[in-house]
Amino acid sequence: MTPGRGPDWLSRLLWLAGIAVFVFIYTPLLIVILYSFHDSRIIAWPLRLGTLHWYDVLLHDRGMIAAVLASLKLALLAVVISLAVGVPGAFLLDRHDFPGKTLYQRLVLLPLILPGIITGVALLTFFSLIGLRLSSGFPTVPGWPVVLGHGTALVSVVVTQVFARLQRMDRFQEEASMDLYANGWQTFWRVTLPTIRTAVLGAGLLVFTLSLDEIAVTFFLIGRQNTIPLEIWGRLRLGITPEVNAISTVVFLVSVIVIVIWARLMRDSEGANA
Fold first, then answer.
1. Residues with Cβ within 8 Å of residue 237, at least 6 apart in sequence
2. pTM for this prediction
3. Burial class (CB in 10 A: 0-12, 13-18, 19+), 57
4. pLDDT below 70 — which residues of the chain?
5. In this structure, how many other beta carbons lie within 10 angstroms of the beta carbon of residue 71?
6. 153-166 burial, b if ≥16 CB within 10 A, otherwise e?
7. What was the pLDDT predicted at 1?
8. Which residues, other chains included, contact 181 with Cβ-Cβ below 8 Å and sequence gap of 6+?
9. In this structure, are residues 71 and 227 in contact, taking their beta carbons and an 8 Å threshold?
């Protein structure tokens, strides 16, 4: 046994546990991806791979295309709202001391901790009290209640990401800008914002990804349109179809790409601060 390390059997056991976790998480995803290329509508073994037919069917599926467009519009609007509210909130936490600041910081995280069903019911009740109908909004976009619901549920992501970056920021650059007679706005646009830009972009990408697959808040607040998760859920009630496997694969790949970009931005942000 190597000094300072556990016995070999324990190391092997930990490696096996790690592999088991990986297999447990990704085997179902791999099955969905493989069956999206299966040449039969029947989900059965053995696999007969080699067809893109179900992706072609997906491209001509009006219901699914409408759900994809609605989800993209909803996610983009959620990003705008989350950034518009979350970035100032992060600056408030970082730059100002006020009574109840610690409590405020904890409450900001509450939407991330609460079950989505609680957030959905609470927002539905609130919008009903103020008379905002679920279908309120423009005809080509999801209703304002679900847009505001996604923004509310995900604003915590922006606050935590941007606040963490502000905490690591070197204030000497801002002080130097002030010494050169730049005012507050000039310092913000030329020094502060470029410094936290990667954190803001990363937070926006993370909100976009989380909004795409959000279902609990959407279920309670959606109006006249379906999003991708709700469209998939509705179809799964009738059984698993190859089109569902195909759209699930597309959403998975898009999510992976966005998360990789987000991780790259976070790494660059940390490197710039080093």
1. none
2. 0.80
3. middle
4. 1-7, 42-44, 47, 134-142, 171-185, 223, 268-274
5. 24
6. bbbbbbbbbbbbbb
7. 47
8. none
9. yes
Residue that the structure tokens 């995900």 belong to: 154
Count of CA atoms in the C-beta half-sphere (13 A) of 251? 28
Instruction: Compute the residue count for the chain.
Output: 274
**What gap in Å lies between CA 183 and CA 185, rounded to an integer?**
6
CA distance 51 to 40: 9
DSSP code per residue over 104-129: HHHHHTHHHHS-HHHHHHHHHHHHHH
**Nearest Cα to 205, choosing from 256, 169, 248?**
256
Domains in the chain: ranges and CATH: 53-273 (1.10.3720.10)
Two tokens, residue 230: 């709700």
